[in-house]
Amino acid sequence: MAIVLGTAQYGKAETRVVRIVRDAPRHEIVDLNVSTALRGDFSAAYLRGDQRDVLPTDTQKNTAYVWAKTHPVDPVEAWGLSLARHFVDDVAPVQGARIEIERYDWTRVLVDGAEHDHTWVRSGQQVRTAAITVEPDATHVVQGVKDLTVLKSTGSAFKDFLQDEYTTLAPTDDRVLATALTARWRLTDPAAATDWNGLAADVLATMLREFATLHSLALQQTLWHMGTAVLTAFPAIAEVRLSAPNKHHFVVDLERFGLENPGEVFNADDRPYGLIQATVERDDAAPAGDAWWAFTGLA
Amino acid sequence: MAIVLGTAQYGKAETRVVRIVRDAPRHEIVDLNVSTALRGDFSAAYLRGDQRDVLPTDTQKNTAYVWAKTHPVDPVEAWGLSLARHFVDDVAPVQGARIEIERYDWTRVLVDGAEHDHTWVRSGQQVRTAAITVEPDATHVVQGVKDLTVLKSTGSAFKDFLQDEYTTLAPTDDRVLATALTARWRLTDPAAATDWNGLAADVLATMLREFATLHSLALQQTLWHMGTAVLTAFPAIAEVRLSAPNKHHFVVDLERFGLENPGEVFNADDRPYGLIQATVERDDAAPAGDAWWAFTGLA
Amino acid sequence: MAIVLGTAQYGKAETRVVRIVRDAPRHEIVDLNVSTALRGDFSAAYLRGDQRDVLPTDTQKNTAYVWAKTHPVDPVEAWGLSLARHFVDDVAPVQGARIEIERYDWTRVLVDGAEHDHTWVRSGQQVRTAAITVEPDATHVVQGVKDLTVLKSTGSAFKDFLQDEYTTLAPTDDRVLATALTARWRLTDPAAATDWNGLAADVLATMLREFATLHSLALQQTLWHMGTAVLTAFPAIAEVRLSAPNKHHFVVDLERFGLENPGEVFNADDRPYGLIQATVERDDAAPAGDAWWAFTGLA
Amino acid sequence: MAIVLGTAQYGKAETRVVRIVRDAPRHEIVDLNVSTALRGDFSAAYLRGDQRDVLPTDTQKNTAYVWAKTHPVDPVEAWGLSLARHFVDDVAPVQGARIEIERYDWTRVLVDGAEHDHTWVRSGQQVRTAAITVEPDATHVVQGVKDLTVLKSTGSAFKDFLQDEYTTLAPTDDRVLATALTARWRLTDPAAATDWNGLAADVLATMLREFATLHSLALQQTLWHMGTAVLTAFPAIAEVRLSAPNKHHFVVDLERFGLENPGEVFNADDRPYGLIQATVERDDAAPAGDAWWAFTGLA
Fold it and tell me: Which among A50, A274, A279 has CB closest to D7?
């Protein structure tokens, strides 16, 4: 028996890169949180403290800033692919790279009804995500969104469920359904993608349409419909992973005060929360490789 | 010398009231975080543990829920005034009440271009706030906003400042200016208000216009212009209080890599941050009384 | 009527100063979050954008770092007083200064039972606070603690309270009482203080003793006893301000499952929470002036 | 090609169970955050909204509370195993269960030097974790800790690293090394464990000893030493996974002010941060199965 080094990666997490494009009076803003991880045989650093093969995380940060100057940051997927390729191709010991990006949306301020050229306000709770993985023999891109907080005030039921001796929940034909959705979808062939932003917008619209229009018998069913709708509409997507906290809105008991409450007054609770997770995938999907081997987010 | 009880208040903080209006197929949602505090002579509870005059905070929570059923929650200022009046008028020992409200915005989901009747997505970072104070002889309403995250990519300078032996900052003619604004404005006569939501929307638009269009020599000047523009446009407002963290966006030094960076690539820093606070007021404003005696938010 | 500038202050918030004292093999660490605000007539900056009297917040940050090198940072109250005096005495336009400090505790790591010379682990949830205010004619120091999370599993009741039509709470003779205490105490004469750290430790021990040993009829009563015990024991303290969220621990109803639950299994709830606030003071206390005019923490 | 349901799980996250043991005047407290997930063939719920096999997450919450009454909650690993076994053995459709537990530490308040019987204060930043996985043919337990915030003020270098055109970092022989460690270690045979709390305490002490005493040439080397020390000392542990953000403490440049700063004054930065992750394992370790398939924490 021996003690050995298993999987490992290292990098710079959460570099806050803001890129202003100011070639014209109407500026553009791209606001990113970039994490870069390098993979390969860095065992000398671990076993002996030998750093000769270790590109410092500080250098990775510098590189992200340089790339924001020298390569178009929008769409972030193409930019991240370029950055990942640089690490793998140009830094000898690096065999794989992972780039994780969060993108924050900004909306132009309206002044007297007109969009302002260089002033924005942050919009929405949701964050667009992208995860780029370059391996020696494969490249993966996973687009996504997190903290997409949605709510429907009717069109959701939960009943006819399994009951055991600890079940006290009352079935309901009509409840509030709310979640802060995390969804990530993997492209079969990143090299074939031509319109990353259009794809992300369309996937989001597809998922929101399903969330809104499906008469939901359970959050599980809603997730399945969201995932299948995406796979049906977008042949380029191999699989969709969804994680949905059920943000419970409890009907407040007002009968104690002689009042009816037919789904009008709710207590929005924090914890605990139901949590539903599922993968919807094509049965002939190309292998995912390291596409889902994450860098940040380990809690 | 004696030890005495000074100012005191107690209540229920952060009751998450969600009200769905479902009288028609097109539902409405009002999503609130409500805190209620009671003021008066509750010294028996403090000094002897005698609770006979103490309406439990649990009851205050129940009351907020009942009020959400029986009184229109929108606009929140009128609803909060009604709730505050109830505590002062109907609960004998209560001499004053403070209602603090946060309101979260939701936007209807678009399905095939049409607004959905009962599905929403959370919009924006900003939170609308309202603080209602009922005293024995006065009533105050302070409207506001917090976490209004805005950024302008040009039109902001900072130079010709005081220098001492510890000053190393380089002056600049052109920088990114960004903040997460907290602004609160006090009405001279809450009873005269007729369109709370219209007022809040117009005040926000006025402040955003000033932020966007003023060529700013300092965040201080921007705040002053925002405040004066509001007082000039809205005679009903007695004073505006502004607190603006300067969310620094530092130009990344790319010269080290042979690259120019004329305001294109920035590091968005977290801490420390400049913090500018100011009150802009009418010199003949009616006394504020307890309008600014807050309940929540003490850190 | 005219629009005028009211109260205002500006500065650098949350400078994270870590000071290592390494004059001997056994190092010391002082880990601080420092916020500095300057007060005075800075109206030219607000009204005209004229910065000639404005010492940049960046300079304030630099000054805090220099002071950490040149003046003993422990105790933080003396250090903060020195820093505040510098701004008021040495920077001409400055008429008043506010220094707010959070101090994080570290405990030495034990290696084979012995305290290590230069390795520590963060200890406790609580944060020590200090707020130093220098005005033209007065100086104030407010010591404090925040996030002191304490819990007692018995010795707390809540009953015989006021009831109205919305009261449903059941009275109890025995409950869990828990809070994340914020307490701040103002010194009558900061110049007379000789042992700041000893004072803070003794005040905390006094408050914890009262929290533990008082059979509490209400959180109000507990706060009063904590405050009076402090004022009784420490003649140098003029007043104590306490803010205590009642972190509710609800007894879970297990009768539904044929089980008793005599105060054994609880649900620790997040929101809403009761919030009790009180000032305990000497009736002949010296005026507080601007001692309580805070800089950070406005939400 | 068909669209199919891939991996899926559902459950109740973050049930805040507080258990007081009060059989004697000296009470005990166990403060937990419990998440339970069920695994198996729940495809009917996803594909058709058929809930007949779905035990509600509300029931899972109830069950956790019941288990806290009827089974000893300390050690949490044994308690979690019992709860997981219940779901798999007693609820027909359930084929696998995952229990994730966070445990918060409390320390007894000292009153006049003596430990109080029923009053505690929250201690430390770190959270103890446990993850129990029951599969049809295997059972796994992963113990751990997160947010273990440690710092050493000397005994750490970083030099002789790989340099490319974007490298600007200066090498150093002596720096502050700080991290908020997440570490998780998997037991080869959970059934053989006899003293879960003793094991966790000993593993933590071992890791802290290595962190303190190793003259570190890189955080990578420190992690490797921590992992190997654990595997060497504890034959029952199959592998250790470590994730360590490098919480940068930058030496402040005081030369600009004519001052030396030999590792005395630091700026503790927030973002970005280096992030180092590694697995240290036995080369003959038993297969991990689903031991690392997490439920909560997906960001």
Answer: A279
Please check whether residue A141 is in contact with residue B106, taking contact to mean a CB–CB distance below 8 angstroms: no
A residues 223-252 lying closer than 8 A (beta carbon) to D: 223-224, 227-228, 231-232, 239, 243, 245-246
Q: C266: which chain D residues are within 8 Å (Cβ-Cβ)? A: 17-20
One-letter amino acid of C122: R
Judged by CB atoms closer than 8 Å, whether chains meet at C256 and A165 is answered as no
Nearest to B82 by CA among B94, B91, B73: B73
- D264/C71 Cα distance (integer angstroms): 12
User: Rounded distance, CA D170 to CA D161, Å?
Assistant: 10
Q: Is A201 on the interface with B (CB under 8 A)?
A: no
CA separation for the pair D96, C7 (Å, rounded): 62
β-pair partners for C88: none
Please check whether residues B118 and B164 belong to one and the same domain.
no
Structure tokens at D205: 């002490």
Range of the domain at B158: 138-290
What CA dihedral angle connects A232, A234, A238 and A239, to 10 degrees? Answer: -60
The nearest CA of chain C is from the CA of A256 a distance in Å of 8
Other CB atoms closer than 10 Å to residue A235's CB: what's the count?
10
> In this structure, what are the phi and psi dihedrals at residue C128, rounded to the nearest 5 degrees?
-80, 140
Question: What is chain B's pLDDT, residue by residue, as a tens digit (299 residues)?
Answer: 899 999 999 999 999 999 999 999 999 999 999 999 999 999 999 999 999 999 999 999 999 999 999 999 999 999 999 999 999 999 999 999 999 999 999 999 999 999 999 999 999 899 999 999 999 999 999 999 999 999 999 999 999 999 999 999 999 999 999 999 999 999 999 999 999 999 999 999 999 999 999 999 999 999 999 999 999 999 999 999 999 999 999 999 999 999 999 999 999 999 999 999 999 999 999 999 999 999 997 54
Check whether residue B173 and residue B278 sit in a common domain.
yes
Supply the angle between the helices B196-213 and B219-233 in degrees, to the nearest 10.
140
Known active-site residue C248 = yes
Q: Is the dihedral of CA C67, D157, B257, A81 positive or negative?
A: negative
**Whose structure tokens read 């007060």?**
C39
Of A137, A156, A183, which marks where a domain is finished?
A: A137
Q: At a CB cut-off of 8 Å and minimum separation 6, what does C16 contact? A: B271, B272, C32, C33, C34, D267, D268, D269, D270
Q: What SS3 class is residue D55?
A: coil
Paired with D186 in beta bridges are D142, D239
Residues B65, A265: C-beta atoms closer than 8 Å? yes
Residues B14 and B124 occupy one common structural domain: yes
C8: its two tokens: 């205002």
Domain identity same for A190 and A126: no
pTM score: 0.98
Q: Which of D137, D172, D191 is the last residue of a domain?
A: D137
Cβ–Cβ < 8 Å for D146, D190 = no
Alpha helices (runs of H) in chain C, residue ranges in sequence order: 43-48, 57-70, 76-90, 196-213, 219-233
Task: Reduce the DSSP state of residue A236 to 3 states and report it.
Answer: coil
Classify D27 as helix, strand or coil: coil
29-68 in B: which are within 8 Å (CB) of C? 35, 37, 42, 45-59, 61-63, 66
Distance between CA atoms of C28 and C19, rounded to whole angstroms?
8
* Residue in C closest to A169 by C-alpha: C256
DSSP structure string for D131-153: EEEE-SS-EEEEEEEEEEEEEES
Rounded to whole angstroms, what are the CA distances from B267 to A12, B31, C13? 14, 35, 18
A48 CA to centre of own chain: 37
Do D103 and D146 reside in the same domain of the chain?
A: no
Residue A156 DSSP symbol: B
Q: Which amino acid is at A274?
A: G
Annotation marks residue B57 as catalytic: yes
Chain D touched by B165 (CB under 8 Å): yes
Residue B277 sits at the chain C interface (C-beta within 8 Å): yes
